[in-house]
Amino acid sequence: MKIAVTGACGYIGSHTLVDLIQHGFEVISIDNNSRSTPEILEGVTAITGKIVPHYPIDMCQLDDLEQVFVQNPNIVGVIHFAAYKWVGESVDKPLLYYHNNLQALLNLLKCIQKFDIPYHVFSSSCSVYGNPDALPVTEETPLALAESPYAMTKQIGERIISDFSRLGVNANVLLRYFNPVGAHPSAKIGEIQPIPQNLVPFITQTAIGLRPALSVFGNDYDTRDGTCLRDYIHVSDIAHAHTLALQHLVKHQIQRNYCEVFNLGSGEGATVLEVIAAFERATGEKLAYQIVDRRAGDVAKIYANRHKATHVLGWQPQYKLDDMMRTAWQWQLRLQEHPIDFPVIG
Fold it and tell me: Is 168 exposed, middle or buried, given 0-12, 13-18 or 19+ CB atoms closer than 10 A?
């Protein structure tokens, strides 16, 4: 079965290519590499032994996207990762995010309809929950006001797909990720953040000497140690959930008006200080960090109820927090020895 993966050169996309190939799927990559590099596909090939056909097109250009499906008439499913994802940038450049993230999705759904693609898995986010009133978060938790334009594009994207599914064109799965971290155990692919936007890249870049110290924003929250608590999940576990979602749709011959949501989280949370401790424990590296004032907009704590993904998809995370930190560090060490060119974002 041939699967088109959009945003395939990105962090989760590249790991999903590996997982799909290792479970017998044929894959193609669609990515304009404005926020990624095709060089990461060399790592996918090194792990799997397979060369992934790559189409460096902008999905906001419908004609170009249609040509990919014309050239690959046997595509049976699409996994859609292609989107801008930095919360802060989305606040500064909301029109950029609304145009890119929503136009790409609309064009993809047009192609799904035109070329009769039966299966679609959509990359969503726990950011759609906003600030939840109760924990753990379930798929039935009401969606609060989105805290950023990025989060709003995910809320709107889910609504578009839900409305589209009622046409009976295809079957859809929406996967809401919590906090993907870590890297492939081979250290041949991982996350590239020249300017860190998330905790773990900031930790690894600080430990290797690229940053002077890690700032911990606040230690007076209502959590175990006063620092913010998040639900971390290894990127390879996230990737495998996409394979399971496709297998679920195919195996059960899901009807074409299907649209289902699943949380992808560990089911428990870790505080910032616990993540730092896990990194030091897993790597033997001592991390320089400092406690500073709270950061505006940070949620005190959020973590997932993952029962539905486990019960329906058979998804069971395999990696623990120490594994996440160890593989993230191994990837950082590899990047230090073999730097990868990355687009300048600004």
Answer: exposed
Residues of the chain with pLDDT under 70: 346
Residue 346 pLDDT: 62
Three-point CA angle 258, 316, 185, nearest 5°: 115
Q: Residue 296's closest CA among 134, 131, 144, 135?
A: 131
Which helix (H) or strand (E) covers residue 207, if one does?
Answer: helix 199-207
Which of 84, 78, 112 has its CA nearest to residue 98?
84
Active site residues: 150
DSSP 317-344: ----HHHHHHHHHHHHHHHHHS------
Closest CA to 273 of 329, 198, 218, 205: 218
Our separate counts of H helices and E strands in the chain read 12, 13
What does the DSSP 8-state code read for residue 225?
Answer: S
The closest alpha carbon to 321, from 275, 268, 265, 267, belongs to: 275
DSSP 304: B
pLDDT of 157: 98
The number of beta carbons lying within 10 Å of the beta carbon of residue 329 is: 23
Q: Tokens 């950023």: give the residue.
A: 148
Q: Which helix (H) or strand (E) holds 79?
A: strand 75-80
pLDDT (tens digit, 9 = 90+) per residue, 30-58?
999 999 999 999 999 999 999 999 999 99
